Model the fold of this input.
Amino acid sequence: MKTIFEKSNGVEGINLTDEKMDMSFLDSSLIRNDKIGLPQLGELEVMRHYKELSDRNFCIEKGFYPLGSCTMKYNPKVNEFLSVLENFTNLHPLYDDTDCQGALELMYKLQNALKVLTGMDAVTLQPSAGAHGELTGMMIIKKYFEVKSEIRRKVIIPDSAHGTNPASAKMCGFDIVEIKSNEKGQVDLNALKSVLDKDVAAIMLTNPNTLGLFEENVLEISHLMHENGSLLYYDGANFNAIMGYTNPKLMGFDVVHLNLHKTMATPHGGGGPGAGPVCVTSALKEFLPAPVVDFDGQIYFRNYDIKHSIGSVKAFYGNFSVLVKAYAYILMMGKNLKAASENAVLNANYLKEKLKKYFELPYDEPCMHEFVLSGEKLKCENGVSTLNIAKALMDENTHPPTVYFPLIVHEALMIEPTESETKDKLDEFVDVMVKIAKDAAINPEKLIKAPHTTPVKRVDETLAARHPDLKFQG
Done:
């Protein structure tokens, strides 16, 4: 496919004016006299070019996303429609509260819904993504101990944690203490006890963890932490696995962030936008970012009167269009939110049982919404790495899952089917994975050179990420 520069034929697609602009008000050094070198095409050809490009993109309308931890489930189109209603999109964030009652009511009711789901007592909707929610949560914990005049420098993080956990804690000035997992892929209680002292501010836990396993000893962990005067932070990236069955409050957590752009089915590809609300217990309510949305019985308003607030963490009030989609999803699902988690867990266990005959399963336990396979045996026996498997999936109209994470599993393949997919689609994925496993033994060279059918073949991922070349050289 040619680039739009190569297709340029000199045709002017549109002229805004025939008048020659008087640029004398500008300094002559600021005026460009030579041509910019932009492509020139008629409007129809431009439209066709970008339609052709869009057809080359992989999207959930085209195929299966078994992505793992990112929960790339189907985003109902009605939610998109609601988020672009004129009275939402034309609402300026500097309007007085009395002039934006509908938006404030939506946010207030979303806060209440999240309180019910998490069991927590207060919510901020400001953070614009999961990692931003993590940072906000750690800032709250830090401020909490400052107000108590306690100096606590450490945050405990399991080796199966999401990679953003240590980064968020470190950005708040905490020292990171990593603890190893036990033979079941869960927090090792003896390892936890060995590092627990009065310098520990909190532990950051994902439950279920990144292996897709529920922390069986979470109540004992909670008891140990609270007995030490420490807090528990809940990474809600995997909340899609437990909605309606349990909640972080019942597990003993003090601070929770949720990825609305995962659990509540709002798009989050391409870096955003997202939403990462933070929910806290009543003891931490006075530390939330200001403002929070409140209701006095007559009007909804932005409440800045928060005694120990960490301050605002986002311009205006978060990614509002994402909040609209999330609230629409909650209303649409209603009590069936519980069924979403139920089906997500069922789908994951179905795939796990089907695939463990062909790939290593390091932790053969009942999983929650996701599970982690290992391609190490295929690599050792046939030279086919996990990366080769991921590339081969691209030839089969399937998005590769998360690979090489969590780090505690060598050649990891983290698979999460979500509740959106049918049994037929899951069976198709199984067939593809079995085919790849068999090809690894019969024709490994085919997999090592994959993908074969995509517009772009093998690229150097490291070089592409660190030194992207975005300039067309004519």
Observations:
- The mean pLDDT is 94.
- Residues 423-442 form the longest helix (20 residues).
